[in-house]
Design goal:
Length: about 230
């Protein structure tokens, strides 16, 4: 069996485990950065992305990598394995291309509001995701009229709650139905703002390295709700 086939098989098998009856426990991701710590949860209805991300975190894949592309009022991107040893000013963003891409799993109930965790990708027509590069949305606030225009272009029908989030806290709705959102930040959204504000070069790489490290812990959903006031759908 080829390595790529093995990886896909592993993800499919693992995703089945995630898709089984709802567990009373979930995986909490702790993301430590140069500018503070955030916590994230991953969605059960994007099982391939969830299984892949947890696998990488457990392998310490993300430790010492950089947020190599940050754009204020848009997003912060990281996960390029080449960033671990990158020299100042070195172009980043192409790393991980030799890893098996993840099938598109966008769900209309998980959109690009502020704090959304999503998978980066190249221009492949199947919209398959990078196996390692991800971004976290900062975004900007939208008016109802602006949101209607975006929804029409992307064939989206936003719920009342989603509209309220895009108008009230902001996001990047133009990415909806084009990239897979597979999790979200559940606290300390201000860390996203701080990172997004860092001065960068022409490729939007921060002039001062913004490093990351991640850990994952399985805990009761009730505890996650109590600690972070996160409401499971």
């Amino acid at each position: 069996m080829k390595k790529s086939q093995f990886i896909v098989s592993f993800l499919l098998i693992t995703s089945v485990a995630f898709a089984q009856k709802k567990s009373k426990k979930d995986y909490l991701i702790t993301l430590k950065t140069t500018y503070g710590t955030m916590h994230m949860v991953l969605f059960d209805d994007t099982p391939l992305h969830k299984a892949n991300f947890i696998k990488l975190v457990n392998k310490k894949f993300f430790d010492s990598l950089l947020f190599h592309r940050v754009i204020e009022n848009f997003m912060i991107q990281g996960g390029d394995p080449n960033s671990r040893t990158a020299k100042p000013g070195e172009a980043l963003g192409s790393g991980g291309g030799d890893m098996e891409r993840i099938p598109f799993e966008f769900k209309s109930n998980h959109v690009h509001t502020k704090g959304a965790l999503a998978a980066a990708r190249d221009g492949n027509p199947e919209k398959k995701s990078s196996a390692c590069q991800f971004y976290i949305v900062q975004g900007k606030k939208f008016t109802d009229e602006q949101l209607n225009a975006v929804a029409s272009r992307n064939q989206m029908a936003y719920s009342t709650e989603q509209r309220a989030d895009y108008i009230g806290i902001g996001g990047a709705p133009h990415l909806d139905n084009n990239y897979t959102v597979f999790g979200e930040v559940i606290d300390n959204l201000g860390v996203i703002d701080t990172i997004a504000q860092q001065p960068g070069d022409e490729a939007n790489r921060p002039l001062k390295d913004v490093k990351m490290a991640m850990t994952v812990k399985k805990m009761k959903k009730k505890k996650i709700t109590k600690l972070y006031r996160y409401k499971y759908q």
